[in-house]
Every structure is written in structure tokens, then in C-alpha cells.
Write a structure and sequence with these properties.
Blueprint: E1 5-10, H1 14-27, E2 32-37, H2 41-46, H3 50-66, E3 72-77, H4 87-104, E4 110-115, E5 121-123
Parallel strand pairs: 1-2, 1-3, 3-4
Antiparallel strand pairs: 4-5
Bound molecules: zinc ion.
Length: 125
């Protein structure tokens, strides 16, 4: 397979998918973006939700090992019904999510993204 994959953990919110996918494709040498989705996924990871973490490994294995993705992105966004907090809280959750994912997948770079009120993507860390 000669097309590059990346892995994106994103909210289920339909407004966030294309902005995140396009930003990743425009900023990295990536053709395809695998999506792992939960409502308010930055909060889910911040809380280290046990059921989600238990389900994550199988999905990550397919993306990282099956598809050969070598980069992980985690995004939070403005006006999130699944994580209805202010931007500062989202940034805190996104940073904690990056830290958790780095600890789970040690050899893969993890990037935290914020999708703002214009549904523009900003790199957080
Ligand atoms: Zn959301």
C-alpha cells in the first residue's frame, strides 16, 4: 500500500469531520484519515473512560498496524454537545488526551487539535 494513513480521534459531530480531515491532509503527507469517533471524545479521554479505552486498542491496531498510520490526532471543538464546556476546558481536555495517547502508543507522534467557532482547525500541541 503506497498511500499514507493518519489516525484521527474526533467527535461524532458532522461539522467537524471535513475540516479536521482536510487540515490533516493539507499539513501532512497523508491521503487517508481513519476516524475513531465518540461524542465529546476529548472529555472521554480526559476522564480515561474505561469502556472506551478498552475498545480503543482494536481500532488503533487496525489503523496503526493494518493501515500503517504513523501519526495520531485528537480533536476537540467549539459548541460540542458531548462536551459542553468552554474553550479553556476543552484545551485542558485535549492536552490530557494527547498525554494519555502518547502513553498508550509510545512510538507514534500525537497532535492535539482545536476546531474553533468558524470550524477552522488550530494546532494546540
Ligand atoms: Zn462534539
Amino acid at each position: 500500500m503506497n498511500k499514507n494513513f493518519a489516525t484521527l480521534l474526533n467527535c461524532m459531530d458532522g461539522r467537524t469531520q471535513l475540516p479536521a480531515i482536510n487540515w490533516i491532509r493539507n499539513n501532512f503527507n497523508v491521503e487517508y484519515v481513519d476516524i475513531i469517533s465518540e461524542p465529546g471524545i476529548d472529555k472521554v479521554l480526559f476522564l480515561k473512560d474505561r469502556a472506551f479505552i478498552a475498545s480503543l486498542d482494536k481500532k488503533m491496531d487496525i489503523s496503526l498496524n493494518g493501515h500503517g498510520s504513523n501519526m495520531i490526532f485528537i480533536a476537540g471543538h467549539y459548541d460540542c454537545a458531548g462536551n459542553n464546556v468552554n474553550k479553556d476546558e476543552h484545551i485542558k481536555h485535549i492536552k490530557a488526551s494527547v498525554k494519555l495517547l502518547k502513553s498508550l502508543y509510545e512510538n507514534v507522534p500525537v497532535t492535539g487539535l482545536w476546531i474553533n467557532e468558524d470550524f477552522k482547525v488550530k494546532k494546540i500541541c
